[in-house]
Specification:
The protein is an alpha+beta fold. It has eight helices and ten strands.
């Protein structure tokens, strides 16, 4: 499940009993509160808890959503309710461009990292046997051990993993005595091979043969929208729909 779908399902689940309370409704100056309610014996809805409450506050040219899941202020039209009523629904990329201040809407996503790595490995695996298993071993093992190098739970660790990982690197050895060997497994074995031949008076040399490496990963965007931002986007759309339903004018 991607983060956009997850945020939508989470919002629906966590606001299932939310009701609107109008704290102010004066033209473009609005203050609406949404919080969990329960139906009492007298058929009245009363607040249940403050979990996942949120406010929608507007003034000319601005809308702020504030509550348990973060605070974001948007600016685009004089009446921001009109902006968010768009028939095109939620557009995280476009809406993020309208956020004011230094509020963060994106952060490192391990899921996105895994997806990009998987695409790269699938493409390269035919030419590099064991590549998928090597990536799984170095990047994703749950059991920590002395040779577990990379921490992909943060972007710095993920970038380091991409830049340092290699698979299938071998060495070749060549000696003046005519000996030649390909596919030496690692640098230590190559050094032993060279020393063994030079001890007999020959001149031996070894050469590294590059294996698979991730390339051009500096171009990879490892960030995705924060679930709090997406949650608040759903809060805005749903909150406005509740307001519109409550204030619809009945023809005379």
């Amino acid at each position: 499940m991607n983060i956009t779908t997850e945020a939508a399902e989470r919002f629906q689940r966590e606001t299932a009993t939310h009701k609107m309370t109008v704290l102010r409704d004066d033209g473009l100056y609005r203050h609406l509160r949404f919080s969990a309610h329960h139906l009492c014996n007298d058929a009245e809805y009363r607040p249940t808890s403050s979990f996942y409450w949120f406010d929608l506050i507007t003034w000319p040219g601005n809308l702020t959503v504030n509550g348990d899941c973060g605070t974001f202020t948007f600016s685009r039209l004089t009446d921001m309710f009109e902006f968010f009523r768009s028939k095109y629904g939620i557009s995280p990329q476009y809406w993020a461009e309208k956020v004011r201040g230094e509020t963060r809407v994106k952060s490192y996503s391990e899921d996105k990292f895994r997806a990009l790595v998987a695409d790269e490995v699938e493409e390269a695996a035919k030419g590099w046997p064991g590549l998928a298993e090597a990536v799984e071993h170095d990047f994703y093992r749950e059991t920590v051990s002395w040779d577990m190098t990379y921490d992909i739970t943060n972007e710095d660790g993920a970038r380091r993993a991409l830049s340092e990982f290699e698979h299938g690197t071998t060495w070749t050895g060549e000696c003046t005595c005519g000996a030649y060997e390909e596919g030496i497994a690692d640098g230590d074995a190559a050094q032993i091979w060279r020393i063994r031949h030079t001890k007999t008076g020959c001149k031996a040399a070894t050469k590294r043969v590059e294996g698979f490496r991730f390339t051009d990963t500096w171009e990879w965007d490892l960030q995705d929208y924060d679930w709090t931002f997406l949650w608040c986007c759903h809060a805005i759309r749903w909150g406005i729909s509740q307001y519109d339903a409550a204030t619809v004018k009945v023809p005379a």
